[in-house]
């Protein structure tokens, strides 16, 4: 692992790293915010919150625009911000912003040419986790996961599939059911193929119906989000949670859109939601 940048922030450290990923078959970058509670020589480990970003993003969006360092420092939690896909000249791409690089959808592609590199779910859970817990003072027994839009959906699915690993979960403006909206239908057809039976393992609304978790899920979405009706469709997830008995607090926030101005406005509630569970 190579450290590309490191800055002191709110008494802690924001650092950016690169490593060669076996699963994604390319160099991958990620950022870590280490809170000030981790001091040199200390053996104390802190809870970890994974933040999965949305379409077109990399580690930088949340670290530069959400203001989460101040809150993570106050709560004493570590934040890991991975990239949203494999990247590089050797990695397949598409001219559209919602496919290819920057649009990995936190799944393992089965279709050529994507299947060589696009394994973001396994990359996070197997490869990046192992690296992060070897190199940083995060506590592997106290992990939460959250994200925005495509990443909010990714957080929901990874929590539902690994509830013992990601004990707390929340989402900002998540896609509720990719299998039923244009962003997801395009990505799933491309990465997983035409057979829709192969999609259900990657759809949060279908997953929660089959395997609800014991966690309390927090979700915030703005009612002025331009993607609300066509791409996010909160009601699909809310209904599925109700039917499955999944504990959920889904807040529709008046006046907010899909941007980081919204995320910055509610992220404190989200980090506090995770910290209360992970530090409880
Ligand atoms: N308007 C964007 C759509 C993509 C988008 O809104 N991306 C969201 C995540 S789904 C985002 O966070 N963008 C980066 C940012 O606002 O910093 C485009 O056409 O490129």
UniProtKB/TrEMBL annotation:
GO terms for biological process: formaldehyde catabolic process. Coiled coil: none annotated. One of its GO terms (molecular function) is carboxylic ester hydrolase activity. It catalyses: S-formylglutathione + H2O = formate + glutathione + H(+). Keywords: Hydrolase, Serine esterase. Its EC number is 3.1.2.12. InterPro entries: AB_hydrolase_fold, Esterase-like, S-formylglutathione_hydrol. It comes from the Bacteria. It is an enzyme of class 3 (hydrolase). Pfam families: Esterase. Belongs to the esterase D family. Serine hydrolase involved in the detoxification of formaldehyde. PANTHER family: S-FORMYLGLUTATHIONE HYDROLASE (PTHR10061). This is S-formylglutathione hydrolase. It comes from Granulosicoccus antarcticus IMCC3135.
